[in-house]
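== Protein entry: sequence and backbone fold ==
=== Local backbone shapes as whole numbers ===
==== Amino acids and backbone structure tokens ====
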Amino acid sequence: MAGPGTGTIYMTAKIFIDTNILVYALDQYDPEKQHKSRTILRQVAQGPGGVISTQVMQEFYVTATKKLEVDALIVKDILHSFSHFEVVLILPEIIDRAIDCQVLNKISFWDALIVSAAQSARCGKIWTEDLNPGQIFQGVKVENPLIL
């Protein structure tokens, strides 16, 4: 059931994948999460349902090059491999909805921007570690696939 300000719950197979799930696929410092992330990303890649945003791509690049110290050109190649995902462009309308989501739900702007991008793509789920599993924002349910 949707809570106040969440709107319609989208019952689609589309899954919005947050940056942390993509980063863990590269993270050699946490082999368990790396294995789980790679497994779930392979599953999503086999279907039509994976969605990311330009924000996720930017965050992935910065995190992979700065935190994981992966060579920039390797990360650029990995970003090209994300072409099988649907990519949401962060437009002014999405930013506007993110601000509303942030204010209504008292979450960070960056998390609200993820929620609004997922909602704009009509995703049924967001896979992330940054929000509480089971919460529903703007009709999109939060799941942490690393603990499922």
In short: The chain has one domain: 15-143. The helical segments are 19-24, 31-45, 54-66, 72-81, 92-105, 109-120. DSSP finds six helices and six strands in the chain.
